[in-house]
Write the structure tokens for this entry.
Amino acid sequence: MLHSLKALRRLLHAIAHAVAGWWTIRFTFPGLDQAERNARVQAWAARMLEIMGITLRVQGTPPAHGPVLLICNHLSWLDITVIHAARHVRFVSKSDVKHWPLIGTLSSGAGTLYIERERRRDALRVVHHMTDALRNGDMIAVFPEGTTSDGRGLLPFHANLLQAAISSGVPVVPAALRFADAATGETSQAPRYIDDDNLATSLWNTLRAPPLLAIVRFGEPQSSYSRERRTWAQTLHEDVQQLRRDTH
């Protein structure tokens, strides 16, 4: 009962924080430059994790500035908030998110690029947009698995979006994410969001869980010079696996 009451308080606080973020994007962002907007997004994300009882632990060195393409394993709907709290980047996300109430505004305000996964040719359009953004100095993040996994291993990496880094000549930084019980350090499945899981259940399980750690481990930048994207995707898959094993 006490866990449920605490979770309910966290939920109400999180909703209020999300609404405040929506208000900031709609009415404050127009008067801010891009650097100020990015800082607001990062601070908002960090505060959201605190509200949800999640402590952020950053290992390795996040990229200080763009242009760079960040790749990371994908576990939960929480991943974007966690990475934003560690370092603001522009994400590539499925187009459905753009139309979600409240979340769509938050996502667009954070600079998200959208892809229609049902249309195979849309990946080419997104690669062009990513390439232009990287050439303009942006930091962009993708989840090359394409969907969430259970955290026990990685799904195969899709190579298509790596073409943006190769075409723009910018480095790729691999990263790994793990959720853990703050008391024991053991991997937590509370935020999982795979297969038949639904957002409401995953959110409630996260809010009811004991204090959690969100651990993000950043690897070293890798040059895109003379890369072949499929081979590189396989190498990066191994690198992210090792980074995940090294989280502590």
Residues 162 and 229 are 6 Å apart (CA to CA). The chain has one domain: 2-246. DSSP finds eight helices and seven strands in the chain. Residues 2-246 form a domain with the Glycerol-3-phosphate (1)-acyltransferase fold (CATH 3.40.1130).
